[in-house]
Amino acid sequence: MLAIGAALGASPARADGPKVVFGVPGIPPIFASVLPHVAAEQGLFKKYGADVEVRDFETGIAAARAVTAGQIDLAIAPTPVLVSMVSNAKVNLVGIYGLPNPDWLIGSTDAAKTKCTDLKGEPVGVDAIGGARSEALKEMLAPCSMTPDDVKQVALGSNTAPAMVAGQLVFGVLHLDDVPVIEGQLKHKVTVIITLKQVSPVSHYLTMVARTDKVQEKRDAYVRTLAALIEAGRVMRDPKNLDAVAKIATVTGHGEDENKTSIASYNELEQWPNSTDGLQREKIEAVIATQVRLGGIKAGNTPVTYDQFVDESLWKDAAELVPAQ
Fold first, then answer.
1. Looking at the domain that runs over 105-199, which CATH code has it been given?
2. Is residue 221 pLDDT above 50, yes or no?
3. What is the DSSP pairing of strand 206-211 with strand 93-99?
4. Alpha-carbon distance 176 to 59, whole Å?
5. 124: which strand partners?
């Protein structure tokens, strides 16, 4: 373990707070889930007096549904799907932290199939129908005048990359860190057909949600959990911690060398919020507008507003617990 706590100084802690079960996406976890795993492995949850269990779920949506049902306390899930859930089903969820910058892309392992039109009628790997990759696919196909009905979505959980390596698929909706893994095993380049950033420069990736009633009941525990995540983000951005973070990131199933490449890419993308809750109004409102336009929010349902979807106060309280850099 790194001596991070000593380096940053002591912070308030308590050992008698309620347990927080934190659901994160992917079995094995996606790279975004490395942040809470770093907080756990580096003892940061304990440092801030939070009793946190990080639990891996097949998808972020499965984790969010578990929060809604009261089975767990917190979840990281794709913002577009959460916006639709809250707007359509009026589920009692509120965002308290976010990873703002999507890393989605459509990749091809066949150098002869590199255009949007090559996707028509073809199998494309996603996590689950209606899941994060599926929603990203919908957005990325729109500029090609196509919808998900024009392709064959193959639900693979977090195993799209292995399926492409095995030759079961040519096309897949991938995370940024999937690309070096596929290229390393196939020994040739993955062609990036399109990225979500190209399609939606102002978009939002993942939101950490809780039930609004639980926010009141477990507010102190949630604030302490957020404080640990703020410090974990610092750990992941600091080049001195590259080896340690790359080792923790093997929870994704990727090797340490692959992880080092991915960490650099994600830091360049500014994946881990720095001095912000990661829930910028412009980005969240862009997601809401996109879900209205693409039909994710059904006609007749009132779209959730930013102020209904986001509670900024917990992060502000958490930031006060974290020593200044």
1. 3.40.190.10
2. yes
3. antiparallel
4. 17
5. 153, 171
Half-sphere exposure (CA, 13 Å, Cβ side) for 92?
12
Nearest Cα to Cα of residue 229 among 265, 269, 176, 271: 271
Q: How many CA atoms within 13 Å lie on the side-chain side of 142?
A: 16
d(CA 16, CA 50): 9
Q: Is the CATH code 3.40.190.10 the one for domain 4-100+204-321?
A: yes
Report how far residue 309's alpha carbon sits from residue 302's, in angstroms, rounded to the nearest whole number: 13
The stretch 278-286 carries a mean pLDDT of 97
Query: pTM of this prediction?
Result: 0.85
Across residues 99-120, what is the average pLDDT? 95
Residue 13, pLDDT above cutoff 60 = no
Using an 8 Å Cβ cutoff, are 157 and 27 in contact? yes
Q: Give span(s): CATH 3.40.190.10, the chain.
A: 4-100+204-321, 105-199
Tens-digit pLDDT profile for residues 284-312 = 999 999 999 989 999 999 999 999 999 99
Helical packing angle, 132-141 and 79-89, nearest 10°: 100
| Cβ contacts of 141 within 8 Å, gap of 6 or more | 116, 119, 147, 148, 150, 151
Record the tokens describing residue 74, joined without a space.
């917190």
User: What's the rounded Cα separation, in Å, for the pair 196 and 199?
Assistant: 5
Contact 132, 168 (CB under 8 A): no
- Residue 5: the pLDDT is 38
Report the distance separating Cα 196 and Cα 247, nearest Å. 29
Number of helical (H) and strand (E) elements in the chain, helices listed first: 16, 10
Is the model's pLDDT at 4 over the cut of 50? no
Kindly state the tokens that stand for 66: 């578990």
